Prior knowledge:
InterPro entries: Carb-bd-like_fold. The chain is of the alpha+beta class. The protein has one helix spanning 3-25; strands at 33-41, 52-56, 64-67, 73-79, 82-90, 93-103, 108-115.
Amino acid sequence: MHFVPYLLCMLVLIITVPVLARAESREYAPPPGVLLGIVVDGDSREPLARVKVSASTSGHMQAQVTWTDPAGRYRLPLLPAGTYTLRFEHPDYAPSSRADILLRANRAVRSRVALRPSGTRA
């Protein structure tokens, strides 16, 4: 009589231990973050479209790149946590960059950037 519950417990252990061990051995990847913001003209404060925005980090060889929309907005989603440098480029404006941007897992970092026309000194 006591033999059946014992067998059931052993069967549960035999099945669950390997499943749990396999689940723990998988590499955990934290949820990605997002860098987003707006780019404006430094003089008029009007939004700038078609600004190339690139995000790079020392952990990845290739930068993530996007372009601002007509309202000057950009969004770089699905980025792993890390410290990033953002670079902003437009043919009519002096390039600009922001370094040491800390992006945490499952977070968004917003920034507003003003670009100066190429012939203007800051």
